[in-house]
Design a protein that fits this description.
Elements (H helix, E strand, L loop, with lengths): L14 H14 L12 H8 L3 H13 L3 E4 L3 E4 L8 E3 L3 H6 L5 E11 L3 H7 L5 E10 L2 E10 L16 H8 L4 E12 L2 H6 L7 E11 L4 E10 L8 E3 L2
Antiparallel strand pairs: 1-2, 3-10, 4-5, 5-6, 6-9, 7-8, 8-9
Helix pairs in contact: 1-3, 2-3
């Protein structure tokens, strides 16, 4: 059973630093997962017996660092669940997953505007209409499914764009309403099922690798979500650069 952390009033650490640490630990441990609404300032004040100023200072720092996001009239939500370690990952798919010098052939399977499913609402923190694009990629002979989700208000007027020859992230950089600050990348192992297994030309239940990318703006808001799915036999190469 997990023991709930409390405020230590004998500690030399200021109260807002202790509240900051408690909330950040809840996020990084997964107790408060990505997309969840955290308790209100009043509820946090009551739980930890501290003032609103103390809670507000702690929450504001977590917003500044990208762990939390405030939505006016709705509350405060978790936007980041991975510790910042001073490393920056390259963001182009072909560089990150398969190394440089690869050949990518893309086929668009589906492209439309739609209301986001519940899973995507939580990630993008909106129920507004989204651009949805489903592609099948051949990368040096390896099959990869790519799904992109971005709110229409974040990337308007892309109807005439030829997505066969443009990376979706490049479009966000060129035409998006906000600048990309960082990309959260999460890896999962899954069992491939249904249409996904068929598109990847493997048996249903075969192991697959899922790369989830959440594209974040400098104000801590999610701009887009891109999901890549490949069979478990694919080679992966990752490169990191230390931030200067």
């Amino acid at each position: 059973m997990k023991i709930e952390r409390t405020i230590d009033r004998e500690s030399k650490l200021k109260l807002y630093v202790q509240i900051y640490s408690i909330i950040r630990d809840k996020i990084e441990s997964g107790e408060w997962p990505l997309g969840i609404q955290i308790p209100t300032e009043d509820e946090l004040c009551k739980t930890y017996d501290v003032s609103k100023v103390t809670v507000r200072d702690a929450v504001q720092e977590l917003v500044r660092e990208g762990y939390l996001k405030r939505l006016q009239g709705k509350g405060t939500f978790v936007t980041y669940s991975i510790p910042q370690l001073g490393l920056m990952m390259r963001t182009r798919l072909s560089d990150c997953l398969y190394g440089e010098g690869v050949t990518v052939n893309k086929k668009i399977l589906e492209r439309d505007f739609r209301k986001p499913p519940e899973e995507i609402k939580k990630i993008l923190m909106t129920d507004d209409e989204i651009n949805y694009i489903l592609c099948k990629n051949h990368i040096n002979g390896i099959l990869l499914i790519e799904e992109s989700f971005v709110p229409v208000f974040e990337l308007p007027d892309i109807d005439d764009e030829d997505l066969l020859y443009k990376q979706f992230l490049d479009l966000i950089v060129e035409k998006g309403t906000k600048k990309i600050s960082r990309i959260i990348q999460i890896f999962e192992i899954t069992a491939l099922k249904g249409e996904t297994a068929y598109q990847l030309e493997v048996k249903e239940g075969s192991p697959g690798l899922v790369v989830n990318r959440i594209v974040m703006s400098s104000d801590g808001n999610p701009i887009a979500y891109v999901r890549y799915i490949g069979s478990g036999n694919n080679k992966m190469q990752m490169e990191f650069e230390r931030i200067k």
